[in-house]
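// run 5 | inverse folding | seed 20
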């Protein structure tokens, strides 16, 4: 950031900051690796294979997801097999049983982590990119920042901190919009972005169509891979959509998870 006064061209300033942040990130990673090597430590990784295809899940699995399984089975019995997209949508965002709706899926207490949770440099670099994109748009007087699937709000917080080094861009940002359907995640985002909440500049939406009709810089990290998708398979008689049906053998009756070919 100390290079900013020396740079008349703001795009050049963005490049300087990006290089500086990346250099800091690489040096930090190298120091960590060297320290770990000097201590002679090794890391043991245990892989849980209980969910692999062909293995039967234990009783705990069914107890933990019993509500969702009953919901899926009920829908299939009522209207027939579900598309993979419908199955994924219910599994991820069902109001009561959805994976993301009532729990923290990230970090040690969750099932996975993402780059913004590992190092702040990632979000800071995205913030510098937003400034460069705003410049490329012709520096509009009003622009909105939006993030799809913002998780805990960490990426947006880091993005805003880095982009605040550019006063003109900071003044042009007239609102931050988060595309989020999980009440649990919205609470985490509210905590991470409290200053924006107090200023009335933080807004939540359930769909892209709800965003204001103004210039928007939209970012999304590890979002598209979590969206429900339709699956198709090529058979001897042409393409068929893969469906989710019931099969015998689940606890308390049928089990959701079998496959059926559809047209």
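// decoded
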């Amino acid at each position: 950031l100390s290079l900013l006064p020396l740079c008349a061209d703001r795009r050049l300033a963005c490049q300087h900051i990006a290089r500086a942040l990346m250099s800091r990130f690489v040096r930090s990673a190298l120091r960590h690796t060297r320290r770990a090597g000097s201590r002679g430590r090794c890391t043991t990784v245990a892989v849980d294979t209980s969910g692999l295809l062909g293995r039967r899940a234990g009783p705990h699995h069914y107890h933990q997801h019993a509500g969702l399984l009953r919901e899926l089975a009920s829908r299939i019995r009522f209207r027939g097999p579900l598309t993979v997209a419908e199955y994924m949508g219910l599994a991820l965002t069902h109001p009561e049983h959805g994976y993301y709706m009532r729990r923290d899926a990230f970090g040690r207490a969750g099932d996975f982590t993402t780059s913004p949770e590992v190092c702040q440099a990632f979000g800071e670099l995205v913030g510098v990119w937003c400034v460069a994109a705003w410049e490329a748009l012709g520096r509009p007087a009003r622009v909105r920042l939006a993030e799809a699937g913002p998780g805990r709000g960490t990426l947006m917080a880091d993005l805003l901190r880095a982009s605040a080094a550019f006063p003109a861009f900071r003044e042009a940002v007239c609102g931050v919009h988060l595309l989020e359907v999980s009440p649990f995640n919205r609470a985490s985002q509210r905590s991470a972005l409290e200053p924006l909440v107090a200023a009335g500049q933080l807004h939540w939406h359930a769909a892209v169509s709800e965003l204001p009709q103004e210039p928007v810089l939209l970012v999304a990290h590890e979002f598209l891979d979590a969206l429900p998708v339709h699956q198709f398979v090529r058979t001897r008689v042409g393409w068929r959509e893969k469906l989710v049906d019931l099969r015998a053998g689940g606890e308390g009756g049928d089990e959701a998870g079998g496959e059926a070919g559809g047209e």
